[in-house]
Design goal:
It is a single chain. By secondary structure, this protein is an all-alpha fold. The chain has one domain: Serine Threonine Protein Phosphatase 5, Tetratricopeptide repeat. It has helices at about 10-25, 30-40, 45-60, 65-80, 85-100, 110-125, 135-150, 155-175, 200-215; strands at about 10, 105. A two-stranded antiparallel sheet has the order 1-2. The longest helix has 20 residues, at about 200-215. The radius of gyration is 17 Å and the shape is globular. It starts with 8 loop residues before the first strand and ends with a helix. The structure holds adenosine-5'-diphosphate (ADP) and magnesium ion. The site of adenosine-5'-diphosphate has 24 residues, from helix 3, helix 5, helix 6 and helix 9. Magnesium ion binds near residues 36, 41, 43, 84 and 184.
């Protein structure tokens, strides 16, 4: 049997994916804010869009030839521009992913898991939420588990990310029937039941974008 060519994602693939994330957040700004108006303070879409538009601006200038460095730049940008609970959380996620990929100019499928696990660990440490608290953790945790499982069976990155995206979507809709125990929505107690968590929704959108990009570039 012929050895398969090893497939990797380049710095420009990562920049391309980040640009798409900025577009997706922008396109879903109203939707995310609408979700946050039901159980929060109606700013998740505007918070996220502010942060990702700031990233888009930085990506329009020349960037480092280092994937870790680029992700850290994104993390710093999110920490300083997004505000709310989600700014430090997504900021930490990107900073940790960037630290995990420091110095890399190419990614192999396994690097996605290394970065994803680091990002999730950062969110868990920073926000102290656990699975089932009705937060972004409910989308991120099953996504990383699905990514790990798929990569362990030798799946391509696109296929593994597609599984992660499906798991994130299931986790996202799974936030609807449960009561919030972390963040602003927890102040509503039982009245938070019946609404989809905005942060779990933005996490799903970001993971779906990664899956779509990986498919497009044949990663
Ligand atoms: P804020 O709640 O400060 O207005 P956002 O509206 O931007 O901030 O973000 C709200 C989202 O942040 C929630 O939907 C939830 O997914 C996420 N979130 C809030 N607190 C936590 C936490 N402790 N851990 C993980 N995610 C959290
Ligand atoms: Mg809010």
């Amino acid at each position: 049997m012929e050895k398969e060519l090893s497939i990797s994602a380049t710095v420009s693939d990562v920049v391309n994916c980040l640009r798409k994330m900025c577009d997706v957040i922008h396109a879903n700004k109203e939707y995310l804010t609408e979700l946050d108006s039901a159980i929060g303070d109606a700013d998740h879409g505007t918070n996220m869009d502010r942060g990702f538009q700031a990233i888009a601006k930085k990506l329009s200038a020349p960037v480092d030839n280092d994937i870790g460095g680029i992700l850290k730049m994104c993390g710093m940008t999110l920490v300083t521009t997004v505000g709310g609970a989600s700014g430090p959380l997504y900021g930490t996620a990107f900073l940790q992913a960037g630290t995990a990929l420091a110095g890399k100019q190419e990614l192999e499928p396994g690097d996605l898991l290394v970065a994803g696990e680091a990002a999730l660990k950062g969110v868990l440490m920073r926000g102290k939420a656990i699975l089932g608290d009705k937060t972004m953790v409910d989308a991120l945790t099953p996504a990383i588990a699905a990514l790990e499982e798929a990569l362990a069976t030798g799946a391509k990155a696109a296929e593994a990310l597609e599984k992660a995206s499906i798991a994130a979507e299931t986790g996202m809709t799974g936030t609807i029937p449960i009561q919030a125990r972390k963040g602003r929505a927890s102040y509503l107690g039982e009245r938070s039941i019946g609404h989809q968590d905005p942060g779990a929704t933005s996490s799903f959108l970001l993971i779906r974008t990664m899956a779509e990009t990986a498919r497009e570039i044949g990663f």
